[in-house]
């Protein structure tokens, strides 16, 4: 429904208001309402001037001079402001100079002066105008009406959080605001029948982040309504709890729209996502910031079990696996997602004995192996970390080596700290060059002395046997598409060429690094 300035003037709240300028532009559309709290033109331009917005203010009485008034009127008009409504102006003809009114007429900005009645508040005007915008003549819902009254009472409340809390208490609902990574940012709880974590788990299971409309989810008998909201250009999720099952889905959807509009009117900025910032600090190696954030994020250093970086797990099957893991293992997963990439940590929910931690670490490895069943998934993890220091070092190891470890181990989908550490060391050897690298490369020199094709064939078999098949001849034959007997024959020839038993404990470490360096050479060059 299109609502104009003229339509608003017909409302009861504007019964004794006066139109002192811009009378030719009363057909301008009104989409929303805001309160102007500054006399600084630059702040008006950046924060308060919006298209099709009715702006309420009281500063014209004594707190601005004529020049400022003219500049603000021009700024509002340039932005497409629908109308300026002034409060507490005792005598408009005296307080608003002729040049100010002439400017408003010239730029086509209607100026409405409210009657000198201290009982008329900003909230009263906002309530009636927003009711008219959202619901027109059919409006008459107690939930929405009462919520608007409390939510937009700028005289009583100092911030959005205080206003929405009172609205929730008076209308028997709850509100939880989550970051895009499903970490709670704002929690207005008026009853405790289910935990926020239970609701989040079900929200993920129902795939609410892919829904553009509000979705109803029953959380252990508690009705919750989920939907996305945009705040200052950032995506968040909000769910509303109907405590007594008193409202229809349509009413809750309207309530959500009102709350989102109120966030904009209050210029509400969500608190930072401490858990996401904690992960980002560790990724950047900023240990001091991580220590600062850990209490705010509700994290105990001793409870850190594993850190990981994954690609391709952000899908329905991945969500189910992660959710079931948290439920079955009594472990918490904390993660942030950037496109197809996920950075995360696995934590104990409570302190446990060292022998129990060993079992939990095994559970983490089992989780990663379940996630890898999708062929496109790649997971890089360090499981078994020593507090914040260890977690930061683990992320550094992952960051330095994940792009190369896939070239050294092309058949793997899950990479542990052992593969990552090996490749990290090889990268350092590669960068340093010199005699250390030369010593390892020379371990493979005997293959050059064999006939060219034979030497290349034997070296390829050795690479596959050591790096891909875990020194398993059956797997080697599978990877290479040759008979097991052929593999056994070639391994015997390799022993003869190198003049060693390649599976010997003193031989395999150096040989593994030499073969890994050879594969890295192909990537670098």
From TrEMBL:
It comes from the Bacteria. InterPro entries: CdaR-like_regulators, PucR_C-HTH_dom, PucR_C-HTH_sf, PucR_dom. Residues 7-133 form the Purine catabolism PurC-like domain. Pfam families: HTH_30 (PF13556), PucR (PF07905). Residues 458-516 form the PucR C-terminal helix-turn-helix domain. This is PucR family transcriptional regulator. It comes from Aminipila butyrica.
């Amino acid at each position: 429904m299109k609502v104009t300035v003229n339509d608003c003037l017909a409302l009861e709240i504007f019964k004794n208001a006066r139109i002192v300028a811009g009378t030719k532009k009363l057909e301008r559309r009104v989409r929303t309402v805001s309160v102007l709290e500054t006399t600084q033109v630059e702040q008006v331009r950046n924060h308060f001037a919006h298209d099709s917005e009715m702006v309420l203010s009281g500063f014209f009485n004594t707190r601005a001079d004529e020049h400022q008034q003219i500049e603000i009127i021009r700024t509002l008009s340039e932005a497409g402001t629908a109308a300026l409504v002034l409060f507490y102006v005792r005598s408009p003809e005296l307080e608003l100079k002729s040049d100010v009114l002439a400017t408003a007429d010239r730029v086509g900005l209607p100026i409405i002066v409210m009657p000198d009645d201290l009982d008329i508040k900003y909230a009263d005007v906002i309530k009636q105008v927003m009711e008219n915008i959202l619901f027109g003549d059919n409006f008459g819902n107690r939930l929405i009406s009462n919520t608007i009254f409390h939510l937009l009472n700028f005289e009583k409340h100092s911030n959005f959080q205080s206003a929405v809390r009172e609205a929730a208490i008076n209308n028997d609902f709850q509100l939880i605001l989550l970051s895009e990574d499903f970490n709670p940012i704002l929690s207005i709880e008026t009853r405790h029948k289910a935990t926020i974590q239970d609701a989040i788990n079900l929200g993920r299971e129902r795939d609410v982040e892919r829904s553009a409309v509000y979705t109803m989810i029953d959380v252990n008998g508690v009705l919750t309504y989920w939907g996305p909201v945009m705040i200052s250009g950032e995506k968040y999720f909000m769910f509303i709890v109907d405590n007594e099952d008193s409202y229809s889905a349509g009413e809750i959807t309207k309530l959500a729209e009102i709350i989102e509009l109120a966030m904009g009117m209050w210029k509400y900025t969500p608190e930072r996502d401490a858990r996401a910032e904690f992960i980002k600090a560790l990724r950047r190696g900023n240990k001091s910031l991580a220590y600062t954030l850990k209490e705010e994020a509700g994290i105990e250093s001793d409870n850190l079990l594993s850190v990981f970086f994954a690609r391709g797990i952000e899908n329905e099957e991945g969500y189910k696996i992660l959710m079931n893991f948290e439920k079955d293992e009594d472990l918490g997963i904390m993660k942030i997602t950037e496109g197809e990439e996920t950075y995360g940590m696995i934590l104990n929910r409570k302190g446990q004995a060292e022998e129990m931690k060993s079992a939990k670490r095994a559970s983490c490895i089992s989780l990663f192996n379940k996630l890898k069943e999708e062929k496109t998934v790649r997971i890089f993890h360090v499981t078994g970390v020593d507090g914040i220091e260890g977690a930061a070092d683990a992320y550094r190891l992952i960051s330095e080596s994940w792009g190369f470890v896939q070239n050294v181990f092309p058949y793997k989908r899950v990479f542990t700290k052992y593969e990552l550490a090996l490749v990290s060391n090889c990268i350092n050897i590669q960068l340093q060059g010199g005699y250390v690298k030369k010593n390892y490369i020379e371990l493979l020199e005997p293959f050059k002395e064999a006939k060219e094709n034979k030497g290349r064939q034997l070296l390829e078999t050795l690479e596959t046997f050591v790096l891909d098949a875990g020194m398993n001849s059956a797997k080697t034959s599978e990877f290479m598409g040759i008979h097991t007997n052929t593999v056994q024959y070639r391994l015997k020839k390799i022993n003869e060429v190198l003049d060693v038993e390649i599976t010997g404990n003193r031989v395999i470490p150096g040989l593994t690094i030499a073969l890994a360096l050879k594969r890295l050479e192909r990537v670098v060059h």
